Amino acid sequence: xxxxxxxxxxxxxxxxxxxxxxxxxxxxxxxxxxxxxxxxxxxxxxxxxxxxxxxxxxxxxxxxxxxxxxxxxxxxxxxxxxxxxxxxxxxxxxxxxxxxxxxxxxxxxxxxxxxxxxxxxxxxxxxxxxxxxxxxxxxxxxxxxxxxxxxxxxxxxxxxxxxxxxxxxxxxxxxxxxxxxxxxxxxxxxxxxxxxxxxxxxxxxxxxxxxxxxxxxxxxxxxxxxxxxxxxxxxxxxxxxxxxxxxxxxxxxxxxxxxxxxxxxxxxxxxxxxxxxxxxxxxxxxxxxxxxxxxxxxxxxxxxxxxxxxxxxxxxxxxxxxxxxxxxxxxxxxxxxxxxxxxxxxxxxxxxxxxxxxxxx
Amino acid sequence: xxxxxxxxxxxxxxxxxxxxxxxxxxxxxxxxxxxxxxxxxxxxxxxxxxxxxxxxxxxxxxxxxxxxxxxxxxxxxxxxxxxxxxxxxxxxxxxxxxxxxxxxxxxxxxxxxxxxxxxxxxxxxxxxxxxxxxxxxxxxxxxxxxxxxxxxxxxxxxxxxxxxxxxxxxxxxxxxxxxxxxxxxxxxxxxxxxxxxxxxxxxxxxxxxxxxxxxxxxxxxxxxxxxxxxxxxxxxxxxxxxxxxxxxxxxxxxxxxxxxxxxxxxxxxxxxxxxxxxxxxxxxxxxxxxxxx
Lengths: 361, 293
Description:
The complex is a heterodimer of chains A (361) and B (293).
Chain A: H1 2-19, E1 23-29, H2 35-45, E2 48-54, H3 57-66, E3 73-74, H4 78-86, H5 106-112, E4 122-135, H6 136-143, H7 153-156, H8 158-164, E5 169-171, H9 175-186, H10 195-199, H11 201-208, E6 214-215, H12 220-226, E7 231-235, H13 236-249, E8 255-258, E9 264-272, H14 280-290, H15 293-303, E10 306-307, H16 318-321, H17 330-334, E11 336-337, H18 344-359
Parallel strand pairs in A: 1-2, 1-3, 5-6, 5-7, 9-11
Antiparallel strand pairs in A: 4-7, 4-8, 4-9, 4-10
Helix pairs in contact in A: 9-11, 11-18, 12-13
Chain B: H1 2-30, E1 33-34, E2 41-42, H2 50-55, H3 60-67, H4 69-102, H5 108-116, H6 123-134, H7 139-147, H8 160-185, H9 189-196, H10 201-212, H11 214-229, H12 233-238, H13 246-255, H14 260-292
Antiparallel strand pairs in B: 1-2
């Protein structure tokens, strides 16, 4: 009898859940999708989509490690994904529910395998580089026609930064990207995990620190587009979105993006399903929807990031597929580097160094 | 007897649920070690092997806090910001409360309403509004430029000044209300008596009004000081990267380092720092209660 009651309760509970419309909760980076796709998803599948955004891997990771985030799909970057897989935060994808996996691009899959072996837990959403965005007019006005806008010299040489401070410079508040960049500038291995080598990044930041207006990972898109700042170290697509917004506003601001010629970091944002996702089935439906060639192309055409979807390339506009800032040519590609996640002890050194760089303490 | 026992146990039960249990959970995490797992620390609670559970706990995270000067600098800087903000809140709040208490009886409910009214808008939105006011193209700079007081926009946003403005603004009602309630209860004839006995108005205020509103001042100051010390939202939105506050350090430990044990140790120390003013506050309340009886 007792078993019977329990089953009945369970059945009622399940029935109740089904009666309420099915929903999927997605946690993605800010400014990272064409919002029409979200409506399209709801219309096509009848699943309610709840879409939240974040602007730092750290915030996402803390939610993942605390468990019970309530999200069905999250989008960590490669290094963070790798660590969270080890922590047991994700469930393996079920290829049977993902027919659109055939659309994925082997070139990108090969690179993401270093974070997620066999790509068992994640699919690539977008990838890009970390580089320098400039307001061309203002920077050439201050530094002359031959301003090194494609070089780390622009942001790490105090004599340049002193002048640029007048029109405003933002850096990403992301030590895992800024420190490798500084190490590259010094000619060190950007992927170094040796605390003594990492500590050398300080000598790069200290002389330019007084000229940096703000460390922030999302404000620079609007600030660049409005002409409030003239240089931002940021993510490729974000800066290209700023370029696009400025062009739309027709406010005389011309933005350009360059992956530094000394070498730039390449990163991958991967969609994965948390181990405790309330609705993994709907999560698979969402992933499959995203991997549809036309949908993925719509997203890339909107946010100016390259994606890991081979089939989508024929639907990309020339502005995206033809732009070497988004789909780099072979020469640039050879110059890009990737990094591994920091072990816990090294992570502490990195965070401490970053606090010291930002606050002077 | 039973009734009496129940009555007494209510506040203790309240303390147990809302203070002691959360504190013990945080204390336990502060004695653990980080791990790459869900949740990101070990050991997790295990009824079956309590011996091993307790052996795994140690104080190394607290030792760690003493090794790096970041932490005590952040505590000191937070204390400084909290003390200065409390002072300015008092400076602005007292005259407002005084004005309210001296206002005609029929106005007082309206004035009280006006003090409480800002709470109807989300705290976060109000702090965001200050970003619009204080930024270099913001209202304040536009206004000052227009009046000709300054010729270059002032940099206020992303500095400590903005943090002070934010804290004073946010916590002002917490200062005004207790002072108002103290002043409201005051017998006006005491002032008349002081003046009859030869006090000037100013002296009467200092010798009679201020001491009688002492409890309101103390209560208001604690209500401002305690939350200001651990404040996170205001410094992160209005402060610059040079603003060092313990709330932000805690955030970094928790999010950037994924080090829940050290973050918990920081929180436990913060609580110990706060316990001193809380105990003082409690004693003051008790004295007041006794005096009234």
